[in-house]
């Protein structure tokens, strides 16, 4: 069994309908296998967990966990976690909700990093990096994400504004010259009517627009080509902020790397000096020699 995937492709025609579904899922979703269980695959494919287990035994494995271990050891998959993480997961049962929550959060975060390889990501990074003025706004629970993006960018570059929606008219966005600036709107389901209306008005005004949203948003691509998406349908009661937080962190990192260089370092050093002057720290910084 030197190549499990080659075997699945070669024997596919001889499988039953249910077995073929499982085989096709494994072949077409290789990057997701590390985060799946027999129960989760059964739920996705509307088959029984018994059927998934029987299919694994037909392939020569005791259960789905052994199949995953075979793939991990044969390096067919991009297993991002080391043995310590696998051992940690083994402490949970397949039915444990915390295990599924953790695996789903990792799966969604991996997807963000995969999308960051696309041209739309690099184009969006370039737009924000070259804009002399960046205005950022978020509504409902996304206000926190907007604040995080704005505050982090303010550390590394000038001209970043967190837009306050309390005025109700957005004159600071819509009535000023669109040149040399861009607007970043963050929103996920259920989308705020205000965010969509503001996006539409900004597009009409010719303001370069970035929309950070989830993968199910169908109106954002009609308004701008600069759409960055992260899934938020985790396994928790509330929608997961992990993938969107990861997106914001990665976006800031790439904006800094887009020609920031020494300018960013100088700015951070000057900000640190100002902070130390106005606020200071509980303990002073350690010197190179190790003395406080």
TrEMBL record:
GO terms for molecular function: carbohydrate derivative binding; DNA binding; DNA-binding transcription factor activity. InterPro entries: Homeodomain-like_sf, HTH_RpiR, RpiR-like, SIS_dom, SIS_dom_sf, WH-like_DNA-bd_sf. SUPFAM superfamilies: Homeodomain-like, SIS domain. Residues 2-78 form the HTH rpiR-type domain. One of its GO terms (biological process) is carbohydrate derivative metabolic process. It holds the Pfam family HTH_6. This is RpiR family transcriptional regulator.
